[in-house]
Design brief:
This protein has helices at about 15-20, 40-45, 55-60, 75-85, 95-110, 115-135, 155-165, 175, 190-195, 210-215, 225, 235-240, 245-260, 260-265, and strands at about 10, 30-35, 50, 65-70, 90, 140-150, 150-155, 170, 200, 230. With about 270 residues, the protein is an alpha/beta fold. It starts with 8 loop residues before the first strand and ends with a helix.
Amino acid sequence: MRRFPPERIVCLTEETVETLYLLGEDARIVGVSGYAVRPPRVRREKPRVAAFTSADLDKILGLEPDLVLTFSDLQAEIVRDLVKAGVAVHAFNQRDLAGILAMIRTLGALVAASEKAEALVRSLEERLVRIRAATAGEPPLRVWFEEWDEPLISGIGWVSELIAVAGGRDVFPDLARAKSAKDRIVDPARVIEAAPEAILASWCGKKVRPEKIAARPGWNAIPAVRDGRIHVIPSPLILQPGPAALTDGLEAILVALWGEAEGRRLAAL
């Protein structure tokens, strides 16, 4: 890192972009992932230099970053190329709610904004506690979260935890602890057997087709399909392990499980 705190940061995933904006440190950002959409003005203010598993190395180097922020093993090759080019890189790998909160604290420390980061974490933690307490009185709905359709992939750790906060029960909680998507592949017959009462779908990078879900062989026997409880959650709200998942993502789950009015009320706690 050339300077501390770094003055020129490139963010190759969305959650670090949103976090820096929330901390009021967005002036440090000089380049972002093409998927960065929160806050909306980021698309006007910051140049896009990467997708998720690919990046324009020349563009990144041309920005002369003090620090590049990445996420997960899927960006390992990008990290390798940047390190070989002499760039300082911090690779996050959060997979659960505790990891998301730790990411915020770590990022705050990296930009000398620890107090602001701690205040943000406390506000998020306190809201999670309030919502969990408010949804704890009823038997939890059985929920199938579908991250991908071919093959079927169930929800990752933070998604499963947010379903629990919202008063639901992930039908495959053990799979949520798996770090790799290939380890969360589920046979369609197992979903039928699990009999979820609600289906939440968020296909990463692809539009969800609820009618395709409902038309799968044998799925008409699933309570969620029979009762028309297939809910689409936009992937930027729930599949990014950052503030969006803990705020708007959780609200979308609450609305799906409790209905529009009650879900919004719970989200406002």
